[in-house]
């Protein structure tokens, strides 16, 4: 596993933000939200540019979340700005610096340790964590959990 320092270019995003969620609800919400967004993006004549993501908001500087009050953004980078509709938002995400790593394995097994390592790297470069994370999902749910691939990014300034 190799942690890298990157500068993410600005991206046009289409997403839905959900608030007040319990950690146990996440599996029931993420997949259907990706499907809803994908359908809307297609209906608007836009194209998905890369992998879907979940961004966890309001994270503590240690990386902890209140697992009973999670705020998360579920979305896709797209090739053009499209109209917003109901909960679906479209915006330009500015460029940001981040520590990133490709994690391969079951999401529940080692994710906390991965986040801790990313936080340490941010401290090493004198950065300040921006209280959110991005997880880009490279494999679908049909892949064995031990082989799931997730890119984790922690933005900092």
UniProtKB/TrEMBL annotation:
SUPFAM superfamilies: Probable bacterial effector-binding domain (SSF55136). It comes from the Bacteria. Coiled coil: none annotated. Transmembrane segments: none annotated. Residues 1-157 form the AraC effector-binding domain. InterPro entries: AraC_E-bd (IPR010499), GyrI-like (IPR029442), Reg_factor_effector_dom_sf (IPR011256). Gene3D superfamilies: Regulatory factor, effector binding domain. This is AraC effector-binding domain-containing protein.
